[in-house]
Design brief:
single chain, about 280 residues, mainly alpha, Substrate Binding Domain Of Dnak, Chain:A, Domain 2, 5 helices, about 90% helix, elongated
Length: about 280
């Protein structure tokens, strides 16, 4: 039965059907926004995106509030707080990249990698079985590793992010409190200035009060800048450093799969690294 000619055509037909199912059915479903795993991963990334946007808005609001303080002492701090927006923009781009990459890799797995592996099995039915079967196995394993790459990176980054999420929220709250405090203080100072117009002694007292208020706000702004620096460092690590490290690890594993696959399945390719 094994040697009958029609067996190859039956297997070939079955492989072609599997290729069509993978391309037509699984590829669109895997890239769909309603797929449960993608919904879970998207929710995780959206949470970080929301936090990043909130941090960027808070730093801009704090910069605007600090720049309204009398004198030039607070101007450098306001500029530094405004500069955090560029860093948070980089983090935001990295998060959107990860969000899109999972859907793209999942689609490519079922639309390209799986059909390519099945096509290799189809070629194996008509010649050079060891080569095409080895290539098919390597493609399947490598594709699975690529699909797991983004979820693994997100899982590791979430472990770090959750432990420091409260600290980030404290920085956001402190930024809001500082902006509100500066706004109320400046309004109070303007009210006193209107009431005490023409009174020299009271004006001097008011200037002393304003100077003390500005110094206190500058001190709080310095502490807030430290908080934003820690928040930015954490977001860069969780959104950029950890995912990149995981991607490099998985790419190394893909290379290792092909090297070991051809070393075991095709002994004649041992030592011929230029093939890989």
């Amino acid at each position: 039965m094994r040697n009958l000619p029609y067996r190859k055509w039956i297997v070939s037909l079955w492989l072609v059907c599997m290729m069509m199912v993978s391309i037509v059915l699984f590829a669109p479903k895997f890239s769909s926004a309603n797929w449960p795993l993608r919904e879970k991963l998207t929710a995780s990334i959206d949470g970080k995106i929301g936090t990043t946007l909130e941090l960027a808005a808070s730093s801009s609001a704090a910069s605007l509030a600090v720049s309204a303080l009398p004198g030039d002492t607070a101007t450098p701090l306001a500029e530094k707080l405004a500069d955090f927006g560029g860093g948070f923009l980089v983090v935001l781009c990295a998060l959107y990249f990860e969000k899109c990459m999972f859907a793209v890799i999942g689609f490519l797995f079922f639309a390209v990698i799986v059909p390519a592996a099945l096509l290799c099995l189809l070629f194996a039915e008509f010649g050079r079985k060891r080569l095409f079967r080895t290539l098919a196995v390597c493609l399947a394993i490598s594709g699975a590793l690529l699909v797991l790459m983004i979820p693994t990176g997100l899982a590791v980054s979430d472990m770090v992010y959750v432990t420091q999420k409260e600290t980030i929220q404290q920085t956001i709250d402190a930024s809001g409190d500082l902006s509100l405090e500066i706004e109320e203080g400046l309004q109070e100072s303007e009210g006193q200035e209107q009431k005490e117009e023409g009174l020299i002694d009271k004006a001097k007292s008011m200037l002393t009060t304003v100077s003390t208020f500005s110094a206190d706000m500058v001190k709080k702004a310095k502490n807030l800048m430290t908080g934003f620096l820690h928040a930015l460092a954490l977001m860069v690590v969780t959104a950029c450093v950890i995912p990149i490290a995981v991607i490099l690890l998985f790419l190394w594993m893909v290379k290792l799969v092909f090297q070991l696959g051809f070393a075991v399945g095709m002994p004649e390719f041992r030592g011929r690294r230029e093939f890989l």
